[in-house]
Design brief:
alpha/beta; about 15% strand; disordered N terminus
Length: about 190
């Protein structure tokens, strides 16, 4: 059982959870990702997203990040709001004292395209009202991503249990035979210290 499911027990970083979530939710060919920030979380997300066939635009404030990928365009903040119209997902990871994306940015999003915004900033980078003002925008934050991960882990535990029971059932005869051989061999051998 361990050999079959060991990889499912790996721990996940928040950027892994974010990248897995985006990969699961965005079904568009060659999606466009906009990442606001260039710290550890942004870097982790970008590195994971590079595994996909996608385009990534990363905005940085002070230290220009370096990536070895032609999928990534690196620009200095402030960001041009027009870039939001082609975004399938916007990931905000800035340490900012106020909202970076708010109601005034709604007009820049494509009204015919669903867009996911993930606010990973502390304090929050995105006004929570933005998702209630547009049906095409879905807003998530660290807490909601953790809930998604908890649901995934619960489902994964159930799947592992089913897999383990299936393995036990498939190999029950072998187990019974080994158990009989073990019992028979122990009854014949006595141990004298």
């Amino acid at each position: 059982i361990r050999n079959t499911d060991d990889k499912k027990f790996e721990g996940k970083e928040i950027y892994d959870i974010c990248a897995d979530f985006l990969q699961d939710k965005i079904k568009r060919n060659k999606p466009n990702f906009v990442v606001l920030g260039s710290g550890k979380i942004a870097h982790g997300i970008i590195c994971r997203l590079c595994d996909l066939d996608c385009k990534i635009t990363c905005f940085y404030r002070i230290n220009k990040p370096e990536f070895n990928s032609n999928k990534i365009r690196i620009l200095k903040l402030p960001f041009n709001e027009d870039i939001l119209s082609s975004a399938d997902a916007v990931i905000c990871t800035l340490a900012n004292s106020s909202n970076v994306i708010n109601e005034k940015h709604l007009k820049h999003f494509n009204s015919k395209r669903n867009t996911i915004i993930i606010d990973m900033g502390i304090p929050r980078n995105v006004s929570i009202e933005i998702s209630s003002l547009s049906q095409k925008i879905s807003l998530f934050n660290i807490d909601s991503l953790k809930k998604v991960q908890e649901n995934y882990e619960s489902q994964s535990r159930n799947n592992r249990l089913i897999s383990a029971l299936d393995l036990i059932y498939k190999h029950k005869n072998l187990f019974d035979k080994l158990q009989r051989n073990f019992i028979n061999s122990n009854t014949k051998t006595t141990y004298n210290p």
